[in-house]
Amino acid sequence: MTQTYIKQQLTNLFTQFLTETEVEKLKQLREQIIKLFSSIPFNDSNSVSIEMELNLLKETTSLYIQNDLDGSVKSLLVGDFDRLLIQVSLSLLEK
After folding, report:
1. DSSP string, the chain
2. 95 pLDDT higher than 80
3. Using an 8 Å Cβ cutoff, are 64 and 73 in contact?
4. What is the spatial distance between Cα 76 and Cα 20, in angstroms, rounded to a whole number?
5. pLDDT digit string (tens) for 43-92?
6. Using CB atoms within 10 A of its CB, is residue 84 exposed (0-12), middle (13-18) or buried (19+)?
């Protein structure tokens, strides 16, 4: 898989996550996003930042699901997704 393909897949998964209303499907999408993002071979110089962003995403997605898809948490998710996509974009520039 190319990094461009991974970025497109993440974007699609993020969009699906933000529009999904079924909790079980949200949990599946969450796991797919985490698995895909974790599979990206990032530059070691950014590893702490990447790990922090991934942990933040894990916490925020869990909070979103646990709080019945709360709109205020959804806005946090959009920010998390944006930052993760920026990390992917930066890794593409480094290659």
Report:
1. --HHHHHHHHHHHHHHHHH---HHHHHHHHHHHHHHHHTS---GGGHHHHHHHHHHHHHHHHHHHHTTS-HHHHHHHHHHHHHHHHHHHHHHHH-
2. no
3. yes
4. 16
5. 666 677 888 888 999 999 999 888 888 888 888 899 989 988 888 877 76
6. buried
